[in-house]
Backbone:
């Protein structure tokens, strides 16, 4: 006599879609798009053109490169609390505890990465 078959748990369509997105990596693209939109809302489109974010938030820290020392001082020294507040409200997928700004060299006007 054969052993009884194990039944797979029933899942909802939402669970199936989320599983597919996670396995395919498409959920990360969506998260990146959400973070990009939240960043532009937090700093404005003009400032966003002069920054480049890392694609991941590691241990609650978002790393951002800026293309000028003046902007580095403004964002890191004066606007950081305001930016953190907006990002925390808009981007709830991962909790952002801090932002680290550093001077970088990249092509101005390049889309954030």
Residues:
């Amino acid at each position: 006599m054969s052993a009884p078959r194990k039944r797979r748990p029933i899942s909802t369509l939402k669970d199936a879609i989320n599983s597919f997105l996670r396995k395919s990596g498409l959920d990360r693209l969506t998260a990146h798009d959400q973070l990009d939109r939240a960043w532009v809302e937090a700093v404005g489109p003009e400032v966003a053109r002069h920054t480049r974010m890392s694609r991941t938030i590691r241990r609650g820290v978002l790393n951002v490169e800026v293309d000028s020392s003046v902007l580095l001082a403004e964002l890191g020294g004066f606007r950081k609390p305001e930016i953190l507040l907006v990002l925390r409200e808009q981007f709830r997928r991962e909790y952002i505890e801090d932002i680290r700004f550093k001077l970088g060299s990249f092509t101005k006007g390049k889309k954030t990465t």
In short: The two ends are 59 Å apart (CA to CA). The CA atoms of residues 18 and 42 lie 28 Å apart. The domain at 15-103 is CATH 3.30.300 (GMP Synthetase; Chain A, domain 3).
